[in-house]
Amino acid sequence: MRLGPGSTERLARARGDLRMGVPVVVGPLVVVAAETLTPDRLEALRALGGRPVLAITARRAETLKARPYDGDLARLLLPAGVGTDWVRAVADPADDLDKPMLGPFASARGGEAEPHRAAIALAKSARLLPAVLAVEVTAPDTLAGAEGLTRVTLGEAALARAEGTELAEVVSARVPLEVSKAGRLHVFRPADGSEEHYAVEIGTPPRTEPVLARLHSACFTGDLLGSLKCDCGAQLRTALAQMGSEGAGVLLYLNQEGRGIGLANKMRAYSLQDQGFDTVEANHRLGFEDDERDFRIGAAILREMGFSAVRLMTNNPAKIEMMRARGIEVTERVPLKVGHTPENARYLAVKAEKSGHLM
After folding, report:
1. Is it the case that residue 358 has pLDDT exceeding 70?
2. For the domain that residue 127 is a member of, what is the CATH number?
3. For the chain, does the N or the C end have fewer beta carbons within 10 angstroms?
4. Where are the catalytic residues (predicted)?
5. Among 124, 158, 192, which residue terminates a domain?
6. Is 332 annotated as a binding residue?
């Protein structure tokens, strides 16, 4: 019997360390997240002997006109004499229009890029900008032990990009709601220590019939603040109201803010939208894909609750495809066209044009 952490726990530790600016060891690399890098840590990385490399996604490289020789990422050689301001400016597009001459960039070519790919995936899963500073070392195990750094193998790091983590229901309790006094909240906790997800069950829907369901991604600004930049809050309230009217349904509230990039990065994207970029362009400039959410989580929760078929309230065909791919039958798409405002007209148009939403 072992007391120490296993693969899942080490991944959770690695995410926490990256958020705090603490280096982690990924395969042969010592890695620090670009946005939490400090001058002292940069100096310590340089002292390791190898030349530091700033790994960014191909999306971010496209904006910077850097060469992504590794396909989905670019490994930029850190110029001599630059500091954390340069690293952060390359990683964060906030000042792209004010500082357009960060390059030219020299991209590493050849060698193994998989450790850098794994490190970027870890940064994404920690809701950080997808950019990491990395130095290859000859004895990573020895260094990790001497410095007390979290050590993650490449196989373990691959788990951050593979099948969704296991979920377990922690508790459920009756919660009378405005839309239905027969409300019940279920709390599901992922095994990897990431954010909990919730299921709001209205009534007692039979498990043998398709249930009226919605997969709703958390939106702090829309759901709680009533933001007019999106239609999320209106969709949430309308979905619950319809379930209450029918007397049965289940709304999954998935903590995947900002299409899976986290609230801080979502606010970065909003700032870019104020500069004139649309929602997809903003995500790309940050280094993310159009949509980083993992709807497998929703399918796993539905199965855990005993549902195998749904009438899905959505305007997003990708949700339907993912549900079916994960063994959840979608017998009907229930449109949810609400919350249109002058402030979100362009946002909704871009979702239809670039993301295939049925608006």
Report:
1. no
2. 3.90.870.10
3. N
4. 291 (proton acceptor), 293 (nucleophile)
5. 158
6. no
